[in-house]
Amino acid sequence: PKPTFSQITLLDVPKASTQAQLIRGGEADLALNIDPVTAKSLKGTPDVSVQTVPSLNLIMLCLDNAAPGLGNVKVRRAIAEAINYDSIVKGLGGGAQRPPATVPVGLQGAAAAAPTATDVAGARALLRQAGVSHLKLSATFANNVQYGIPLVTLWQALQSQLAAVGITVSLHPVDYNTWVNQLLAGKLTVTTGIWAPDYLDSADYFGVFGITGGLNSVFFHMNIPGSAALFNQYLKTTGSQREALAAELVRKMQADATFIPLIQPNRIFVSRSDLSGVQYSPNKLIKLAALRKK
Fold first, then answer.
1. Antiparallel, parallel or unpaired: β 135-142 and 167-174
2. What are the tens digits of pLDDT across the range 227-251?
3. Nearest to residue 212, comparing CAs of 202, 201, 220?
4. Is 76 helix (H, G, I), strand (E, B) or coil?
5. Close Cβ partners of 86 (under 8 Å, ≥ 6 residues apart)
6. Rounded CA gap, 14 and 31, in Å?
7. pTM (two decimals)
8. Cα distance from N-terminal residue to C-terminal residue, the chain
9. Residues of the chain whose pLDDT is less than 70?
10. Closest by Cα among 109, 281, 284, 112 to 207
11. Which one, of 126, 152, 124, lies nearest residue 59 by Cα?
């Protein structure tokens, strides 16, 4: 069927509070980037609908293995254990999920291990074993709101949590285009990465974050011995053998800790109640042609 609307206007509105105002006032029909706290405040508002659905998106911490100190896997594991995931997931993510590696919950292999637990004492011990003290890191990240989560707020939390184990992080927020260009040039030592699926299979994550020479792995000089061969075998198999290979890749990714998953955020859609067809598709987000006025 032909789309109902002859024209759809997309507004770039960074602040969730402003998006909420536009929805309340009927000046906008649909908001796509509202945080959990704002969404909660809108529930029960007349003529406003709030949908919260699990996604296959990820926000992760990315560590360059070629940077001083970060080439030691014990240091990367220390960073992973120093993070207070509960405060991130509950405080910023509204109770979203968190996978053990950069493969989202719901896809093959993600259930192979438990997510990394916060262990401040263990993190300090790992740093001592690595012979590292007073580590200083520089984090450059996109200063935007991603999946309803302000990355600057996320980084302020990470900065505080890593300071508790003796790691000093200087924060350098930049505009999104600058961040992308620095990523592609391999100039980011520490950053936050984002990923949404191109297709609904773990291969879309293994090939990017899980193997030596992978799409994003090269930017951070990740090297997991044997990972590329495992992945090639994974692509050729089915059934229980494929499941076992996925589990092995996930465990290797978690142990390597080049990419540390911080949160698998929910997607929140706030719309006017007379708008139908607001249906989430993990690799397409919203199909605009399906929108209808009731």
1. parallel
2. 999 999 999 999 999 999 999 999 9
3. 220
4. helix
5. 118
6. 11
7. 0.92
8. 16
9. none
10. 109
11. 152
